[in-house]
């Protein structure tokens, strides 16, 4: 594609990736449930993948960007499998799934 096309879409894609990363970070910091925190981490990884794909397309190194994204997807699926095991164990001990428990008086 032409270079003008990539210049036109650069700012909206970067803003979208930054907003996704910010929303994921807010979700991790503010969510009372461990599952919502895992979803926040997933949103941050999606923002990184979007930014990598966009950077690879702009600089003409799309195969390298796709390789990095495939590696990220493999690591992400391993992380999600481990997180699922941790969540399953966590819910056996704390059925509400809340991270911050209120002290009973």
Going by helix content, strand content and strand pairing, the class is mainly alpha
Q: How many DSSP helices?
A: 3
Distance between the termini: 65 Å
Strand % is under 5%
Q: Main sheet, how many strands, which sense, barrel?
A: none
Shape: elongated
3D architecture notes:
This protein has 105 residues and is an all-alpha fold. The protein has one domain (3-93): Helix Hairpins (Orthogonal Bundle), CATH 1.10.287.3510. The protein is built from 3 helices and no strands. Helix 1 (3-30) runs antiparallel to helix 2. It is elongated and about 55 Å long. The termini are far apart. The mean pLDDT is 83.
Layout of helices and strands, plus pairs?
Blueprint lengths: L2 H28 L3 H25 L3 H32 L12
Helix pairs in contact: 1-2, 2-3
Features of the shown structure:
105 residues, mainly alpha, Helix Hairpins, 3 helices, 0% strand
Write a compact overview of the structure shown.
The chain is mainly α.
């Amino acid at each position: 594609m032409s270079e003008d096309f990539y210049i036109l879409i650069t700012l909206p894609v970067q803003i979208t990736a930054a907003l996704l990363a910010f929303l994921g970070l807010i979700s991790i910091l503010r969510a009372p449930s461990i599952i919502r925190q895992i979803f926040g981490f997933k949103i941050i990884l999606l923002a990184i993948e979007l930014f990598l794909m966009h950077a690879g397309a702009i600089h003409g190194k799309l195969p390298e960007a796709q390789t990095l994204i495939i590696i990220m997807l493999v690591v992400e699926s391993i992380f999600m499998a481990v997180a699922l095991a941790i969540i399953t164990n966590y819910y056996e001990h704390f059925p509400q799934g809340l991270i911050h428990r209120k002290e009973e008086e």
